[in-house]
Amino acid sequence: MDLSYRIAVRYFFSRNKRSFISVIARIAMAGVAVGTMAMVVVLSVFNGMEDLNRKIFKTFDADIKVTPTEGKRFKVDNSFLEKVKSVEGVKLVTQVVEDNALAQYGNQQIIIRLKGVDSTFERQGQLDTAVIEGSLQLYGKGGTPYGIIAEGVRNALSISLDDIITPLQLMYPKTGTKTLNLTSAEAFNHLSLRPGGIFFIETRYDDYVIAPITLVEGLMDYKGERSSLEVQIKPGFSEGKVSKAIAEKIGSRFVVRDRDSLNSDLLRAIRLEKLFVAITLSFIILVAAINIFFSLSMLAIEKKKDVSMLYALGATPGLIRRIFLTEGAIVALSGAIFGLGAGIALCLLQLKYGLVSMGMATSLVDAYPVKLIWEDILYTGIIVVIITMLVSYIPARRAAEAGQILPT
């Protein structure tokens, strides 16, 4: 065992329990432990929020989305579809026509986001877990067209799936309506649907109505054009790699983005917030570790005679510095290990029992999501080590210098 470590351990365990230095050391340990635990828990919550958002996106957003570089629509024919389908990893390609529209049910009206999809939509299975009433069928018996409606639209219009008489009316301005009176019904194309299913994901998707593309295409006068293609990939394939392959296949006239790219702003905001919170908590740990500085400074004063004797026995200034650096490391690492253990335990308990609720009736999850990433725990440990070295170096250097000038 290294001599500096043996002496530091002896100093740590042989202190008088009533010593003020011992009290400060314990305060330092507790401060580092609490700061470390807080960092582990908070970073895990941010990881959980990022993971939760990805799950939410996956429920509604496509794995890959193809849109035109310019304009809102583009022509789609069979050869273009086959070109996209021929890319390795592509499972389904859904044609989409999407735009804002006016919805009316009874005497109530709201602006909704109308999304027309083809028959492959029913095979995607993305919304299966989000359906709270009805089904995802686009056509019923006898070819009756159905609309799949978000919970927010249902609440705003007071839609009842049991009412088979009142239709959901969708309206979209006719081409050239700039010269028409928009308050007149003649200024709009009309489409009637029967509400067939209600889904709920979260509020950002609460204004959607999904309907058969053939009807929506006629309503919006798209005439064979599409606003986007939604691509579902096969299991085991990377969204990023498949999106790049599709982009190379179809050329620069189209923008091809995977799900993370579609939601990059929100994911980037979560990561930036996580970074700034980690920096803030690092400063809190630094403030807590200042107690190590005071503890070592007073220990150096108390042990001046011991240090002088070690010099007389042939100790070098480097050995004295290592003794006090090791002493600081023992105090800080003891607190850090306890803090890491407590933080990990709290996260595991939250995962299993959901101790802390989000307190939101409209949330998809009852409790705060957490996700332990071992890289975060490693970085937390590295931060504690760096802070320990910073606050321990000056007292260790002063102890080495004071021992040299003290008469023996």
UniProtKB/TrEMBL annotation:
Checking Pfam families in the record gives: FtsX (PF02687), MacB_PCD (PF12704)
- Report the transmembrane regions from the record: 20-46, 275-301, 331-351, 377-396
Q: What is its main location?
A: membrane
Q: Report the residue ranges that make up the MacB-like periplasmic core domain in this protein.
A: 27-247
Domain ABC3 transporter permease C-terminal, residue spans: 280-400
InterPro entries per the record?
Answer: ABC3_permease_C, Lipoprotein-release_system, MacB_PCD
**Coiled-coil ranges per UniProt:** none
> Where does this one sit in the cell?
Cell membrane
GO-annotated cellular components: plasma membrane protein complex
Q: How does it sit in the membrane?
A: Multi-pass membrane protein
Q: Name one GO biological process term.
A: lipoprotein localization to outer membrane
* Keyword NAD belongs to the record: no
Report keywords, A-Z: Cell membrane, Lipoprotein, Membrane, Transmembrane, Transmembrane helix
The record's comment on protein family reads: Belongs to the ABC-4 integral membrane protein family. LolC/E subfamily.
Protein name (record): Lipoprotein-releasing system permease protein
Protein's organism: Dyadobacter psychrophilus
